[in-house]
Hints:
Strand content: 15-25%
Structural class: alpha/beta
Oligomer: single chain
Number of strands: 11
CATH superfamily of the largest domain: P-loop containing nucleotide triphosphate hydrolases
Amino acid sequence: MSTDRQLIDWRGHALQFESQINQTVIGLQAAVRHIVIAVFARGHVLLEGNVGVGKTTLLRAVAQGVGGDYQRIEGTIDLMPADLIYYTYLDRNGRPAVDPGPLLKHGERLATFFFNEINRARPQVHSLLLRAMAERSVNAFNQDYQFPHIQVFADRNRVEREETFELPAAAKDRFMMEIHIDRPDDDASLNELIFNPRFHDTDRLIAAMGDSQIAYYQLNEFAQTLQQTIQTSPKLHRYALDLWKATQDPQRYGIRLPDVDMAQLLVAGASPRGMSYLLRAAKTRAWLEGRGHVLPEDCQAVFAVCMTHRLFVNPMYAYRKEQLLPELIKGILNQVAAP
């Protein structure tokens, strides 16, 4: 099959996949589009939102559409790294036994790994997850276990902050995107979610999804083909570089925020890895839009979800972080001239 034909066929599957998710979780079209981009760009995703807005249902729908095996683990204050690798128990004969934990349980078929309330887990657990994300492998029982197709989704509860651990910069930087999941704000969607029995039984809702014809074990190879085929121009390179520099020194680009010393606002801007993720996501969006080249609007569409969690504000502004970072992102996109 030619590369062009392959891109067209896979795009059809991707759009069908997106449509099926939007029929399963309603009112989250923007978040769904970003997740579809992450799936085909092969990037890990942080989710943040309030309780009961559909994060788990959304990820179960993604796992159903992608195929492979799905595993979920709950972040708790007493969770230890070993709990991801194995668990011990007494068998029916009262003898100690060891079984594979959530990371090892499915082996190479593990495609979607959901870490619920990751900020409740200790930093030691984050470190182990970081290796699994970066290297798609862990070492246990004196051997390496490979997860070539794993995509990690981690959720942070926006409301409850007690007994939580902030993710370190290195861990955040391994996630391609941080996507905010908010409840639908239109009455029609809320009416459906609250009163339509179809949305009250999550298991039946997920089971009713059709076949998206996506083979999880082919995603890595296809993503590589996509990245090599979708083109970027020298002007687009210059634009992306200016966007990155603006995250390092926003003052240089004339960005001003009320009651903020711009020279003191940021402790660190986006990493080169972050910009690499941004371009991967932009290429994937261009492909979903039916184009063979990246436009500035592709970079702009994924800039906030790829960059916000990579910008670290000075502690003196930490209490205003949730207000200042969106304004900073908006200021960068407004002030950096697009080709």
